[in-house]
Amino acid sequence: MNLGDVIRQVQRLFGDSFEVQIEVGDIKDWANEAIMQVVRQAETAQAEFQATYGPTTDGVTLPTQFIGEKRVTFDGVPLERVTINELDDIGVLPSDIAGSPCKFYVWGDKIYLWPLPATSVTNGLKVWYVQAPARIDDPNVPLPLPVVFHMDVVRMCMVRARELNEDYEQARVLKQEVDANLGAVRHDQENRMRETFPVVRDDPADWWG
């Protein structure tokens, strides 16, 4: 489904194909708002970036379309996210691991490592993150979402259309349908994470007794 399909379906469902009450520009705004909401909740758009980080680095600016990180590593080692207040409670690291970043925090539009690395590592910082989609206005551009969410975009546009028409009960029903679908997706994601168990294998040392 492309943006034009969304516009056509919303106009037909609302019964306003000639933009008497709802303009095409309104539907484009609603569709982009809906796409952003789906991406934020279902985390369907993902990206990654790398950056050099050294002992004098004053944080690294995050990508403009950054929503939230999923994984952060330095020189291949996963880092733990903390807040600035939590760092105050940590104190000084033992000397044997000082200079090896083990934590990170986000402040403003930058990501910082703690403690600072002893030496600079080219592209040592790697961030996997959820990425905000770019706005689309061309009707021929496909929706930047998996097919399972396409009708949710139509429904979310219809929620706005019904609210504009002061049909709040129908808007509520449509919103419940969308929330149920996104909730089911989050449930599936959480279950897949919980159902991933390490495989327990025989100890080769036990083969020779």
Features:
209 residues, alpha+beta, 2 domains, four-stranded antiparallel sheet, 8 strands, 38% helix, elongated
Descriptive report:
The structure is a single chain. With 209 residues, the protein is of the alpha+beta class. It folds into 2 domains: 3-44 and 134-194, no CATH class; 46-131, no CATH class. The protein has helices at residues 3-14, 24-42, 84-90, 150-164, 168-194, and strands spanning 46-53, 60-61, 66-74, 77-78, 80-81, 103-107, 110-114, 121-131. The strands form 2 sheets. Strands 1-8-3-4 form a 4-stranded antiparallel β-sheet, with no helix packed on it. A 4-stranded mixed β-sheet has the order 2-7-6-5, with no helix packed on it. The N and C termini lie far apart (63 Å).
Strand segment tally: 8
**Strand-residue fraction?**
15-25%
Q: Considering DSSP H and I runs of 4 or more, what fraction of the residues is helical?
A: 25-40%
Cross-sheet strand order for the largest sheet: 1-8-3-4
Taken together, the total number of domains comes to 2
Rg, alpha carbons: 24 Å
Helix-strand pattern, N to C?
HHEEEEEHEEEHH
Roughly what is the average pLDDT, rounded to an integer? 88
Globally, the shape reads: elongated
| Count of DSSP H/I helices | 5
CA(first)-CA(last) distance: 63 Å
The major β-sheet equals: 4 strands, antiparallel
What structural category characterises the helix and strand content?
alpha+beta
Weakly predicted, low-confidence segments: 93-97, 197-209
